[in-house]
Amino acid sequence: MADFLYDPAEELTGPNHLGVLADHFRKSSNYSVRRSKGTQDYLLTFTMAGQGGFKIDDKIETCVCGDISILSPGTPHHYGTLGQIWEFYWVHFVPRADWLIWIQQMGAHSGFTQSSIADVSVQSRLRGVFRRMIRDSRALGSHQHALAMNAVEEMLIVLALSLQQSNMGLDPRVEEVLQLMSQRFSEGISVDMLAKQVGLSASRLSHIFKQQVGESIIECLIKLRLRHASRLLERTTEQISEISDLCGFQSPYYFTRKFREHYGMSPTQYRNNMLQDNV
């Protein structure tokens, strides 16, 4: 199974670059890479199919579909295919200073770390991010380089958020409801609709959600709407009635009442305070 570990793999050095180097590989059983001195940058792989493996020190780490593997700079490693194929995305990158907090949250600030992304929607998003990353990293020009770096940043944020939610031990159905609410809070969402989406009764979903999140579905939904409303008040000149509608509230009156309860002031007062702070 781990035949690649005994192959005389070619000794490689890390890429000599300061930006983003990414690609999508589908390798056969004879694929193997060895770097006895590691790299000067971070290497991240996202396995799509098949099986690969990393040998770090004397330990073998297997990679299967959904696995994210991260090697920090200077980590000696040897990796290759386990079985028939290994299909994976990979990226070498030098992180910006403000990215290090997300890298630390993933436990990747030193050595080797591996996590599994089980949520298929997160996997799908990561595939899209990698496709853009690869395209922009191959193009010429500073703008394309900036776009590739933005894709790496998005990837790290998505991974850090996904792993944070997993560490909270949330029921997968609660995670799905939270994701649906964050994506569709401006629509007419109901508890019955959410319960049907995840295959539970409304009462059972409400109980599990309150138990794990600490607040009811409606309370959480209202907070999502109010947070978006506050951003629109800060950054746009839309009328209060229009913001109320954009955020999914039943009426401007109900929106204003809930906004005052949460922020301690009316939407108009909030906007005026933001304008004064920016003068």
UniProtKB/TrEMBL annotation:
User: What stretch or stretches form a coiled coil here?
Assistant: none
Kindly state which keywords UniProt assigns to this record, in alphabetical order.
DNA-binding, Transcription, Transcription regulation
Question: Could you tell me which Pfam families the record lists for this protein?
Answer: AraC_binding (PF02311), HTH_18 (PF12833)
User: This chain belongs to which protein, by name?
Assistant: AraC family transcriptional regulator
Tell me the ranges covered by the HTH araC/xylS-type domain, including all copies: 175-273
Can you tell which superkingdom this protein's organism belongs to?
A: Bacteria
The protein's matches in InterPro entries, at most eight in alphabetical order, are given as:
AraC-bd, Homeodomain-like_sf, HTH-like, HTH_AraC, HTH_AraC-typ_CS, Tscrpt_reg_AraC-type_HTH
Lineage here is: Bacteria, Bacillati, Bacillota, Bacilli, Bacillales
> Which organism's genome codes for this protein?
Alicyclobacillus fastidiosus
Gene3D superfamilies (alphabetical): Homeodomain-like, Regulatory protein AraC
